[in-house]
Specification:
InterPro entries: DUF4305. By secondary structure, the protein is mainly α. It is about 90% helix and about 0% strand. The two termini are about 20 Å apart.
Length: about 70
């Protein structure tokens, strides 16, 4: 995986995190905490954690190249 691909993957993870967070907030405000609210929150959490781990790996790789 190239550096550019890794950066793009990190950006997409955070974009999907924001999108699922928006869906969670919208779903909770209109219907309360239902099945889809929990599902959207789970997906948002997964994308945030994966994006953070990828960003951490990216910075560790950049640091080791110096």
């Amino acid at each position: 995986m190239t550096e550019k691909q890794l950066k793009l993957q990190i950006v997409f993870k955070y974009v999907f995190f924001a999108l699922f967070l928006f869906f969670t907030i919208d779903s909770v405000s209109s219907n309360g905490w239902g099945f889809f609210s929990y599902l959207f929150a789970l997906f948002a959490t997964k994308d945030f954690v994966n994006g953070t781990r990828l960003a951490q790996a990216y910075y560790n790789i950049k640091k080791s190249k110096r």
